[in-house]
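task queued by scheduler; priority normal; single chain, no ligands, no partner chains; default sampling; output format set to C-alpha cells
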Amino acid sequence: MKIAISGTYSTGKTTLTEALAIATEIPRTQARTMREILPDAVPGKTLEQCKPFELLTLGLSRLTERMINEEQFGDRFFSDGSSLHEWVYGAARLETGINPSESDLLLALKRIAGAPYASLHKGYIEAFGNVAKRHAKKTYSQFVHLPIEFDLVADGHRPVSEVFRQLSNDLLLNTLKELNIPYIVVGGELRERLLTIAQHFHLPLRMDPDEAIETAVNKVKAEAIEIENHRLSVLATQQA
C-alpha cells in the first residue's frame, strides 16, 4: 500500500494527500518543495534565475529527501507526488525553457543561445530520469493521477505556464504506461476525490470526510504561510 498521488502543478495533490492521511490514518510522506530547498541549495536566487545545473541540484536534493522520508514509513503510505515528479519537472523545463512563463520570443532566443549545451543538459536529465523511474517502479504499488481541472495558482512561486503544465501531465501519464505501473485517474472536487480513492482501495475512513478535508485545508494553508515567512526571513538574512 504505497500509493503516489500524481499530477502536475495546481492539481490539488498536497491537500488531497493530507486529507487522505487524516481520514484513513495512513501516513503521508513528501519532499519539501523547490521553494523550500532553494535557500539552502542555491542561496540568493529565485527559481527563474536558476541555471540548468542549479535546477538539477534542486531536483537531486528533492529526490534524495523523498527517498529518505519514504523509508521512514515502510510499506504503507500516501506520497504527495513521487520520484517521477522531480525528473518530469526538469525534463519539461528543458523542453519549454528554464523559465516557462516567459514570452515565446524570449524562450526562442534563449534556446538559440543555449543550443551548444542542449545535448549535455539532455544527457543529465535522461540519467536523472533513469534513477527516478527505477525508484518509482520498485517503490510505488499504484498511482492516483489528478488531471488538470483547476486554474494555475498565481502565488508568484511557480515559474510555469499552461503549456508546461500540459506537457508535465502528459509526460507523467506516458511514463506510468511505459513502466507499467497501475494507476487510476481521479477527478472532481476534493470530497469526491477522497471518497473515490477510499472506495477504490477499500480503505475505511476513521474520520468524517468533511471534517478531514477542513482540517487538511487549514493545515496546508498554515504550512504555506510558514514556508513563505521562512523564505522571506532567509532572504533578508542573505541580503543583510
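post-processing summary
- Residues 2-239 form a domain with the Rossmann fold fold (CATH 3.40.50.300).
- The radius of gyration is 18 Å.
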